[in-house]
Design goal:
α5 runs parallel beside α8 and α9 packs antiparallel against α10. This protein has 345 residues and is of the alpha/beta class. The protein contains 10 helices and 7 strands. 46% of the residues lie in helices and 11% in strands.
């Protein structure tokens, strides 16, 4: 049975089922039946201590234990708690995306259900948003996880993501982050993309910062992540880099290696032709070196280059079809002046 708030004297500032909240907490849940009772207690205190109305959207990501039963029981006595249940396990990013879609507040705070993230840090994140930032990312500086399987891969991934994206924060993998809704709305989340939201936001002109947050050892249950997740993150980083730098001009992405390969093919062909002339026209057989190899190399490099160039052109056609068929813009508008009554972009 889900616990009721442990301190009923705390002021009830949480949002009711019908009231529009000011802050939405988004919490993915997957096989966390041992952690949920403590999570409910922590949320009871964290939410009632906030001055603005708050809702919590907990997304059951296809749990196979009693997690959903506990969520349903907790929601029965907490009007601010909303529950979404997946038919099967879709992953953390999908759960966060569903939580965002089913939330209502202009400010969204995401955190994990295992209580390694401390709900007591939520007011500090909101305070940083009030300072004018659009995204506040948690930094688990004193991280309580295994060094080899969790912390070391995280350090490498964070360095690589910062290096490639140009958005330098210490801890992309920390779920505890606060966002303004406008930052999240233009983007669909796929794969492990939730960790790249600060990158998307920065590229869209948002002000991104980070702050140190408390990180606790896992109190119950087992971690759902291992070293295999690193490869997914690397592939997603490649996708993010492409979407961020070339999503509206794919010909640039394919064109650069295409020109390099075509140039290599032409140089190989020139060397082959020069050797042919020396070996046959000038009658110098001793200087005739690997004619077949050079010719094959020239044909191979030039052919691959042409194929990449054609892929870039096809990408240009697809991008234009994507944007024009759905009425999507290739830009994001921040502010407008003297446009009252005019159509909005």
């Amino acid at each position: 049975m889900a616990r009721v708030p442990s301190d009923p004297s705390l002021p009830a500032r949480s949002a009711s089922a019908d009231a529009i909240p000011a802050v939405s907490l988004v919490i993915p849940v997957y096989n966390e039946e041992e952690s949920l009772p403590a999570l409910f207690d922590a949320l009871d205190h964290a939410i009632t201590a906030l001055p603005q109305p708050v809702e919590a959207v907990l997304v059951d990501d296809g749990s196979r234990d009693r997690s959903f039963a506990q969520l349903r029981e907790a929601a029965a006595v907490r009007p601010w708690l909303r529950v979404v249940r997946f038919r099967r396990n879709f992953g953390q990013t999908a759960a966060i995306a569903a939580g965002i879609d089913h939330s209502r507040a202009p400010i969204i705070v995401a955190l994990d259900a295992d209580l390694q993230n401390d709900p007591k840090d939520i007011p500090l994140l909101l305070k940083r948003l009030d300072e004018g930032f659009d995204v506040v990312s948690g930094w688990r500086r004193d991280r309580k996880d295994k060094a080899v399987t969790r912390r070391l891969p995280s350090v490498i991934a964070n360095w690589l993501i910062g290096r490639v994206s140009g958005v330098r924060i210490h801890d992309y993998g920390c779920t505890l982050k606060a966002y303004r809704r406008w930052v999240l709305e233009p983007y669909g989340l796929y794969g492990e993309m939730h960790r790249f939201i600060p990158v998307y936001a920065s590229w869209a002109g948002a002000r991104v910062t980070e702050m140190e947050v408390t990180h606790h050892p896992r109190r119950a249950g087992v971690s759902k992540y291992g070293l295999g997740r690193v490869f997914k993150v690397l592939l997603d980083l490649l996708t993010v880099t492409f979407l961020g730098g070339y999503s509206t001009k794919p010909i640039y992405f394919f064109g650069k290696p295409a020109l390099a390969l075509c140039t290599g093919g032409l140089l190989s062909a020139f060397v082959w032709l020069a050797q042919f002339v020396k070996g046959h026209v000038l009658d110098r057989p001793g200087e005739w070196v690997q004619p077949v190899t050079l010719l094959l190399l020239a044909v191979f490099l030039f052919s691959i280059g042409v194929q990449l160039l054609l892929m870039g052109l096809l990408g240009e056609i697809l991008i234009r079809t994507y944007h024009e068929s759905q009425g999507k813009k290739t830009y994001l508008v921040g502010d407008k002046v003297n446009f009252t009554g005019a159509p909005q972009a």
